Amino acid sequence: MEKSFPPKPSISEVTKYLKEWKKLEKYTSQERALNKLFLELLPGNSEITDILLKASCLNDFYSTNIFAIHSVAEHILSVKDLDKRLKDGDIKLVRELGEVKIGEHKKYFYSFATKYCSHHNPIAFPIYDSYVERVLLYFNKVDKFSSFKRQDLKDYRKFKGILLDFQRYYKLERFNLKEIDRYLWLLGKEFFPKK
Known about the structure:
Layout: H1 11-22, H2 25-41, H3 48-61, H4 69-78, H5 82-88, H6 92-98, E1 99-102, E2 105-108, H7 110-120, H8 130-143, H9 156-169, H10 177-191
Antiparallel strand pairs: 1-2
Helix pairs in contact: 1-10, 2-3, 3-4, 6-7, 8-10
């Protein structure tokens, strides 16, 4: 059953949800595992085996349903200057990593690409997913915090700009984009569950 209205974003609401996040053992332990994998054990992207391990874990933990993970890993390996661009927060990477040719078909794994980038540089690359999308659309309808349409959320430059508009409008600058992402995701899961 859907709850009717999510509470208006505020410092106290975000703080409350971030405290809730810390109690979710399944997600916090997965997050610690991914941080260890991406930031400590295999921070680089110059070997197919490293990329396969990271992509496979993301695919499993986030249920991104990519059935040709080796093709995705080969594609990631082929991206020029990937490690430097991840470190620099080059947002063009999301489209570049997400557009993968599998056999004769072109696929766009947008949400996966945001997650892959985010786990290398969590502050520069917020994660897109359907829960975050639903919450942003809801609050924009209520408060008009930004000028955008649903399809703009699938353009990573615009998506990040919309998140920054959200952060400014509700005076949430004390939280980084990773914290805002966790808050939006939990709120979306609670108020806009998948059918």
